[in-house]
Design brief:
This protein has 5 helices and no strands. Helix 1 (2-17) runs parallel beside helix 3, helix 2 packs antiparallel against helix 3 (49-63) and helix 4 crosses helix 5. The longest helix is centred in the first third of the chain and has 19 residues, at 20-38. 78% of the residues lie in helices and 0% in strands. The chain has 94 residues and is an all-alpha fold.
Length: 94
């Protein structure tokens, strides 16, 4: 659900502003920040179930929209070409 919500909210913002790079970098930075609590399993902070759930939801909202945003960027950059072909190459190539 978090990936879906993040895709709708962040994807909608990118559709309006066309700030692909800024948003992608922001999503990657937010993903790194949200990963920190997941690595704290040896500490008391990392054993809190609420923190774990919030960190996983945040990770879904931050990391989930990265691929669709960049797929849309690839389609916009290669406009005259076929959208399906561009996204297929992106999926195969990584």
């Amino acid at each position: 659900l978090a990936i879906l919500a993040g895709g709708i909210i962040i994807g909608g913002y990118v559709d309006r502003t066309k700030e692909y790079k800024t948003i992608t970098l922001g999503c990657l930075l937010a993903s790194m920040v949200v990963l920190v609590p997941l690595g704290l399993t040896e500490h008391a902070v990392g054993k809190e179930p609420a923190l774990l759930i919030l960190a996983l939801l945040g990770l879904g909202m931050a990391a989930g929209p990265v691929q669709p945003i960049n797929a849309e960027l690839a389609v916009d950059v290669t406009y005259p070409s076929d959208e399906t072909a561009v996204e297929s190459v992106q999926q195969i190539g990584g």
